[in-house]
Amino acid sequence: MNMFVQLWKSLYSPKDIARFRFQGIGKTIGYVFLLTFLSILPMAYYLTTSFVEGIRSTSALLQNELPSFTIENGQLHSSAKEPIHIDQHGFTIIFDSTGQVTKEDVERFNNAIGLLKHEAVLVANHQPQYYSYSTFPDIKITDKDVHTFIETLQSLLPVFIPLSLLIIYLFASTSKFIGISILAFFGLILRSTLDKKLQYRHTWIMSAYAVTLSTVFFTVMEALQTVVPYAPFIHWFVSIAVLFLAMKEVPSAKPQNE
Fold first, then answer.
1. Of 83, 198, 226, 227, whose CB neighbour count within 10 A is largest?
2. Same domain, 170 and 135
3. Of 136, 156, 176, which marks where a domain is finished?
4. At what angle do helices 3-10 and 212-223 cross, to 10 degrees?
């Protein structure tokens, strides 16, 4: 059966998930990689567009709208007497050498770059990253140095972005395999409760398909940029429930005749 057909059936049919337990482990591993790939597409899109737009906006603003500055001894220095807040095409840039703005203030934005008193903050699709100036205590950095660095970074984007997405994909795949393996152990507990004749291999394969509904749901929410409260709890509850329903479709172990 085609993997995309399996994905579709796994969304609504515990009976088909139960049937998949007989297929080879290699095909199941391939399915997990496919499911993981589909699940990171929204994040990959938003991360890429946000990063590219952020680099372009920052480069233009450094030349036209931000004052000259230096980063020295772990601090940002400029002639600005108050924070500068700029919104451009859905991207926010905050420049603050006064120390009034905190990293938590920058984190509130969907996509933003904050050059703060003691650190730089990059927010892409609500995911913040921090870069402390104290990492370079003996180096003096000027706005011209930053502009040169951004131009270099722009030229490396065709390499940097695919490499970053590959790392994200590998990390997401590893997390997915670990989650499925844990869910399969829950399957062994359910096996005893339901009196089903299943091995760990079977519960692992069924678990790989049982996480489909939850994964697709959160992928859609990510595409809509909607935050779901208690997401980990919902994911595990739905996955265990689907696995339970699938295991109920497996014939019970026949009692041995005395």
1. 198
2. no
3. 156
4. 90
